[in-house]
Amino acid sequence: MGIRTDLRTIRHMAFPRVAGTTPAERMESYYRSTADDYDAFRERLLHGRRDLMDLLPAAPGGHLVDMGAGTGSNIAHLDERRRKDFHRITLVDVSSSMLDVAGRRVERCGWDNVETVLASATDYRPRDGQADVVMFSYALTMMPDWFAAVDHARAILRPGGTIAVCDFYVSRKHPAGGARHAAWRRHLWPAWFSHNNVFLSPDHLPYLRARFTAVHVRERLSPVPYLPARVPYYLFIGTKD
Ligand SMILES: C[S@@+](CC[C@H](N)C(=O)[O-])C[C@H]1O[C@@H](n2cnc3c(N)ncnc32)[C@H](O)[C@@H]1O
What we know:
Residues 65-161 form the Methyltransferase domain. By secondary structure, this protein is α/β, with parallel strands linked by helices. It has a single domain, classed as Vaccinia Virus protein VP39 (Rossmann fold).
């Protein structure tokens, strides 16, 4: 971490290079030149990830699937005993550059139950049965078909399995419950993040609530490095009935 890395990241965010005709190609082109710098800046931008990992249920012998896992940093936030409890942890991502960083981390840390898989969250399937836990950490906002990714997660989860999500969002203008964000927040942040193909939605939380039984929901505001404003993020843990 350092000012040079920050400046490189900020320059990339201000002038993102995105090419390709499919969402996967666009994602890889976005991350190709910055995957090695990713963790340093995101540690201060993407809040709630440690809490999400702490809230994952124990699943001894189970299979955890991290959709849009990026560099695999979330697994480092799982304590050793809980990581080892999982029979298998699969890091799924469409960006090979991000998965290269994740693969090097897996090797360096000697995580022998963790694998990386280059695939989309809308079509990855566990090769031996159903998943016990599926998580998305700051990934749904980068998936144009986020609703299909949520539906697919539900399809590959065993009955009683857990979905765990944390991401940026904005509230609806008239939410049925929970936080209601001021108009400037509801307009500013989606416009700001869409420049980097991150699409904040008022519909994630209502959709997750509709598809799963909510176990834990948290709505918070988090600081943004170098900016005097805070951005809303949520954390959702739910089970498949
Ligand atoms: C902001 S990063 C989050 C990475 C990691 N989960 C974290 O919390 O740091 C979003 C990740 O989602 C991946 N991604 C985007 N669309 C995807 C899709 N359809 N299937 C799988 N991964 C996807 C991107 O390549 C990227 O690595």
